[in-house]
């Protein structure tokens, strides 16, 4: 037995500290390790195929059908269809089967087409050629055939075919430049580093001779985290172990730039790559409208069951008399009479269910999906939301939440990059208590020596000169900035004093601002080459520092450090970071003066950083190297060990000074927040910045106003008092006048009410969210929520990303269940964007992580105003009318059928023809409501932007409340009663002929069952269509074409359906019925009269409510009509008022200023002034 293999297995699965089950071993080039090193255990990994498609050719039909019939409405209609096939029902299975087949087919075609596009994209990606090393030669094969362990060569401007560990490049320093725009949207060049022991392998033969294994973590989706190590074997002895991190990992989808070629080994392939793991869809969000729709559906299902039970019961009560039986035309056979009573009753119940099942609108779901999908294009087509500066427009990642944009009650926004431009400008620096303000750089020319500096305080003495220059060197060296110029990266550089200015690029705008700022103060960062950083000092001399190590920035430490060796051999650690993370680690320096300046700058809204340093003795540096190496080669808990190592290293610092950087407020950010508050939306700012900086920004963007009383719930205050006392003191303050507060206080604009603003920090929030000793934290949370509800604005500072999501979740699941919206631009905002009901990403300078994970993306914060106040308002108005209208028209459709059973002995006789039953929802009434739900504008766009308070009229799902739902249902029942009994009374004076037909006594025309049903159906189609026309405010030629075209189509279809003998029909009961009906003059009069009576109550209700209890929207509509129409006009000029103008009504809604009326009735000149149309 091979003992080394057994030892390796025991070591792998029984290692004490490290859990090897969670790691994988990769053999570079598929070469076995040397004998005695470790056991060779080949592992199976997936190939490099990417599969983003959902279906295959073989499983499309069953899988798609299974998914579609998981929807309650589709499954319900399938059951109804099967019942019609199994038992004898009054309607043909076609009446349920055809609409269901139409819905299923349309949805399947849409989903199949989308999946075909995904297949096409997958094939293009999987078949692209890739170069890899085999037996020392370069071989070409398809990407899908790559395997883990293959060594791949990638050339400049090519994308990486899988996740690779970077082995070497054509550069001597073993670096390469990469862009990850397709992954996170960051277009800046990122520098990656080859493994130290393999960076010298530049040829295929050298790489093929490499003998190494890689141990790394199993695949996980975090793009910015990777833990591994490489064992490089040689003939000299033990293998060399090197740590591997994210700087050594080249991700699939990233692009190689400014590097001729690189070699890398595949470690994650196919669906295990980080890019593929990020394909996983986000949790499904459902809008409030969809939830209401499902509740209404259940109500109508209960109504349907009630109707079926009532009719079944009354049928058997009716037939309980001996002389009453089934009608002569529906006699049952002897075997049917002998069946069990309960079985017969159940069969009749199912038959009535089938007869009335059309009250459940199956086509509503398809119409809603089409409305959402097509309606989402109005956002992407909106030119007002296109940003010329960035060339970006809005994006819609999901169309399921369009109407939710019109229901937002809370907005949670990030500060940096969302409210501000994330465009940093260096303002000043403070060194040893002396303040330096650089001149603005002029035409790219750096002003030399001290002429580029304004001294606010007195000049430092000679003793401080050394600290001053050390501070400037620290800013020049402590960063991860790259230098980019027009020359080749490795080519000869122009002389720094030749007038050519360096262009700096970095993933952090703060770092670029600091490097550019110190450049204006006389120190210029030149480049990093061969592990040496070069800077140009004030005297025009180039200084070189060897970069020994970088302690990277992270959001927990809130600082970064570099360790460098100067030309004289001295070793420095330079550290920069937030004041809260630097001051506790400082043992020397003018802390009080610098702290005072930092606080002053923070109050002015400037972003501040502190800079410190310490010298390291050689033996200290050796200890630091050992500590870092031990942490970096660990596979388990590497981050924790590194954090402990950083904490140990970054202490006993000497404070040098602080910097101040200005992040300007975005254009119209203040106007946007003010408009959102007027709309009744509460705005919260969640940021990681310090309290003073964030508060200054809140004042600048008018979140806090001059009269706002600020309440602080911060760590500092909790240290002075207990959390319990602080919370209840604040609660007492804000609730003192709560009795007089109204919900208008949401806007925070009332002058006669107390206006409170709350400031809370992350540590205080942790205490509030932390469970108490009794195991409950609900009490503190409720008190906190009560305080927040009575504040016009809330600022949460020093927030970690997870805390942002906790805040959103806390409000989201409070007892009011308000609709929440989160907006941000960085990766730290993703958690709250995913948590909120609606997530919006700003396409900013911190990458596209937020935009990729959001429901919608916009270029600037100012575009949020139109997205909510206009698009959201319209979406909600349209879809709420669509939902209510669908239920209304189906009540109108089925209730006459219910009434008809009382006049036919509950025999389950249908009132309408099969064709009418089938086409009512598919053809006759579908297009008008779809067009309405896409194009309706009850008020003009400019009015909605000018008057944000109109947003409140639709807040809290106002148009889908039970009161409105009940009104639409009652209206449908009333109209159905008018249709049925109006037609019935028209047939009252009739005589029955010997063959059973009905003849009216006044016209002597023959009328039958189908004529009666057709009359009812005709009145119904015209009424429900004209009802929609009455509700339409925004008329275009498309509306006219669809509404009148639908009515014309019904008439033409009825004439053809009953006017021609169709050979494919075994019997034709509608033959000549419609023509016969229209040939009767009283029928025409009856149709017009019944339509008028049906529409009259709704018209009266609209007129009375508009006059007596008008909403803000209705008052605005009245004002628009008054302002857009003349007071007096000649009849010949009435055409100019837009009654039949072909242009959209929105073009007519440009009200004149009230100070300058268009016409003055009774004025001296009695002039008639017609409106002047805008061009």
UniProtKB/TrEMBL annotation:
InterPro entries: ATPase_P-typ_cyto_dom_N, ATPase_P-typ_P_site, ATPase_P-typ_TM_dom_sf, ATPase_P-typ_transduc_dom_A_sf, ATPase_P-type_domA, HAD-like_sf, HAD_sf, P-type_ATPase_IV. Keywords: ATP-binding, Cell membrane, Endoplasmic reticulum, Endosome, Lipid transport, Magnesium, Membrane, Metal-binding, Nucleotide-binding, Phosphoprotein, Translocase, Transmembrane, Transmembrane helix, Transport. It is an enzyme of class 7 (translocase). Its cofactor is Mg(2+). It is found in: Cell membrane; Early endosome; Endoplasmic reticulum membrane; Membrane. The chain crosses the membrane at residues 69-87, 295-318, 349-368, 965-987, 1007-1029, 1041-1065, 1071-1096. This is Phospholipid-transporting ATPase. It comes from Heterocephalus glaber. The lineage of its organism: Eukaryota, Metazoa, Chordata, Craniata, Vertebrata.
């Amino acid at each position: 037995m091979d003992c080394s293999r057994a030892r390796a297995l025991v070591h792998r699965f029984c290692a004490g500290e490290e859990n090897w089950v969670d790691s994988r071993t990769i053999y570079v080039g598929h070469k076995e390790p040397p004998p005695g090193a470790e056991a060779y255990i080949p592992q199976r990994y997936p190939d490099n195929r990417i599969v983003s498609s959902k279906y295959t050719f073989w499983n499309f039909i069953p899988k798609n059908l299974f998914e579609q019939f998981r929807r309650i409405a589709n499954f319900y209609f399938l059951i109804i269809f099967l019942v019609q096939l199994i038992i004898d029902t009054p309607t043909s299975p076609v009446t349920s089967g055809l609409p269901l087949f139409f819905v299923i087919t349309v949805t399947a075609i849409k989903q199949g087409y989308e999946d075909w596009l995904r297949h096409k994209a997958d094939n293009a990606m999987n078949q692209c050629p890739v170069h890899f090393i085999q037996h020392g030669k370069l071989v070409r094969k398809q990407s899908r055939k790559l395997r883990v362990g293959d060594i791949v060569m990638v050339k400049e401007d090519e994308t990486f075919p899988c996740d690779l560990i970077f082995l070497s490049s054509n550069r001597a320093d073993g670096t390469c430049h990469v862009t990850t725009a397709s992954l996170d949207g960051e277009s800046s060049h990122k520098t990656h580093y080859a493994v130290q022991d393999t960076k010298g392998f530049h040829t295929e033969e050298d790489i093929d001779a490499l003998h190494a294994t890689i141990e790394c973590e199993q695949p996980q989706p975090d793009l910015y985290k990777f833990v591994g190590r490489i064992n490089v074997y040689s003939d000299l002895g033990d293998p060399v172990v090197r740590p591997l991190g994210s700087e050594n990992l080249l991700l699939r989808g990233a692009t190689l730039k400014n590097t001729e070629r690189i070699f890398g080994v595949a470690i994650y392939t196919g669906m295990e790559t980080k890019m593929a793991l990020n394909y996983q869809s986000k949790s499904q969000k459902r809008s409030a409208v969809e939830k209401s729709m499902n509740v209404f559906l259940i109500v109508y299902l209960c109504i349907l069951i009630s109707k079926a039970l009532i009719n079944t019961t009354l049928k058997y009560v009716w037939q309980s008399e001996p002389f009453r039986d089934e009608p002569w035309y529906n006699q049952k056979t002897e075997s049917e009479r002998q069946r069990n009573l309960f079985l017969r009753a159940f069969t009749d119940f199912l038959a009535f269910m089938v007869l009335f099942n059309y009250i459940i609108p199956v086509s509503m779901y398809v119409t809603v999906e089409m409305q959402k999908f097509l309606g989402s294009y109005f956002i992407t087509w909106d030119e007002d939301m296109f940003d010329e500066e960035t060339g970006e427009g809005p994006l819609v990642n999901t169309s399921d939440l369009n109407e939710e944009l019109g229901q937002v009650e809370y907005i949670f926004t990030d500060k940096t990059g969302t409210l501000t431009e994330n465009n940093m400008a260096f303002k000043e620096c403070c060194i040893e208590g002396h303040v330096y303000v650089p001149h603005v750089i002029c035409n790219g020319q750096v002003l030399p020596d001290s002429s580029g500096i304004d001294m606010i305080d007195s000049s430092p003495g000679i003793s401080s000169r050394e600290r001053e220059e050390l501070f400037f060197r620290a800013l020049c060296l402590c960063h991860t900035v790259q230098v980019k110029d027009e020359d080749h990266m490795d080519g000869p550089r122009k002389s720094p004093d030749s007038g050519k200015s360096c262009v700096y690029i970095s993933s952090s705008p703060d770092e670029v601002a600091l490097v550019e700022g110190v450049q204006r103060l006389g120190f210029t960062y030149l480049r990093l080459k061969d592990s040496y950083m070069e800077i140009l000092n004030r005297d025009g001399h180039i200084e070189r520092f060897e970069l020994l190590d970088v302690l990277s920035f992270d959001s927990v430490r809130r600082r970064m450090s570099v360790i460098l060796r100067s030309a004289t051999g001295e070793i420095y650690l330079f550290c920069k970071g937030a004041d809260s993370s630097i001051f506790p680690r400082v043992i020397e320096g003018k802390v009080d003066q610098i702290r005072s300046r930092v606080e002053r700058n923070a109050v002015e809204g400037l972003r501040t950083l502190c800079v410190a340093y310490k010298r390291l003795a050689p033996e200290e540096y050796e200890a630091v190297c050992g500590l870092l190496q031990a942490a970096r080669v660990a596979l388990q808990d590497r981050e924790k060990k590194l954090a402990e190592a950083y904490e140990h290293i970054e202490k006993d610092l000497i404070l040098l000074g602080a910097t101040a950087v200005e992040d300007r407020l975005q254009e119209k950010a203040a106007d946007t927040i003010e408009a959102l508050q007027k709309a009744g939306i509460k705005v919260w700012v969640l940021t990681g910045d310090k309290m003073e900086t964030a508060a200054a920004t809140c004042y600048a963007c008018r979140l806090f106003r001059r009269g706002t009383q600020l309440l602080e719930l911060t760590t500092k205050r909790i240290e002075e008092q207990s959390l319990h006392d602080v919370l209840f003191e604040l609660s007492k303050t804000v609730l003192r006048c709560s009795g007089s507060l109204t919900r208008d206080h949401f806007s925070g604009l009332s002058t006669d009410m107390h206006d409170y603003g709350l400031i809370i920090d992350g540590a205080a929030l942790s205490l509030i969210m932390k469970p108490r000793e009794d195991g409950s934290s609900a009490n503190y949370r409720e008190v906190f929520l009560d305080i927040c509800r009575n504040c016009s604005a809330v600022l949460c500072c020093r927030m970690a990303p997870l805390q942002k999501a906790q805040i959103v979740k806390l409000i989201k699941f409070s007892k009011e269940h308000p609709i929440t919206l989160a907006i941000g631009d960085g990766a730290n905002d993703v958690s709250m964007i995913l948590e909120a009901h609606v997530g919006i990403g700003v396409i900013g300078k911190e990458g596209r992580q937020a935009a990729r994970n959001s429901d919608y993306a916009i270029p600037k914060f100012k575009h949020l105003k139109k997205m909510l106040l206009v698009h959201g308002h319209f979406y909600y108005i349209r879809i709420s009318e669509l939902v209510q209208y669908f239920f209304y028209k189906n009540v109108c459709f089925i209730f006459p059928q219910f009434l008809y059973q009382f006049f036919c002995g509950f025999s389950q006789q249908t009132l309408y023809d099969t064709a009418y039953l089938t086409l009512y929802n598919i053809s006759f009434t579908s297009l008008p409501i779809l067009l309405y739900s896409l194009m309706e504008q009850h008020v003009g766009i400019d009015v909605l932007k000018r008057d944000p308070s109109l947003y409140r009229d639709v807040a809290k799902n106002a148009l889908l409340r039970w009161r409105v739902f009940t009104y639409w249902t009652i209206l449908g029942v009333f109209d159905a009663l008018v249709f049925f009994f109006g037609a019935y009374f028209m047939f009252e004076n009739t005589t029955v002929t010997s063959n059973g037909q009905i003849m009216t006594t006044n016209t002597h025309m023959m009328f039958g069952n189908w004529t009666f049903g057709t009359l009812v159906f005709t009145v119904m189609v015209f009424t429900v269509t004209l009802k929609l026309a009455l509700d339409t405010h925004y008329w275009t030629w498309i509306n006219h074409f669809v509404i009148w075209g639908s009515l014309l189509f019904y008439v033409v279809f009825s004439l053809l359906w009953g006017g021609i003998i169709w050979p494919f029909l075994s019997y034709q009961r509608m033959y000549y019925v419609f023509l016969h009906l229209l040939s009767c003059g009283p029928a025409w009069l009856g149709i017009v009269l019944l339509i008028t009576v049906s529409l009259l109550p709704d018209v009266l209700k609209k007129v009375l409510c508009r006059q007596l209890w008008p909403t803000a929207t209705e008052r605005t509509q009245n004002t628009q009509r008054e302002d857009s129409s003349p007071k007096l006009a000649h009849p010949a000029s009435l055409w100019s008022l837009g009654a039949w103008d072909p242009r959209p009504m929105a073009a007519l809604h440009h009200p004149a200023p009230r100070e300058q009326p268009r016409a003055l009735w009774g004025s001296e000149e009695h002039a008639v002034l017609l409106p002047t149309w805008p061009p």
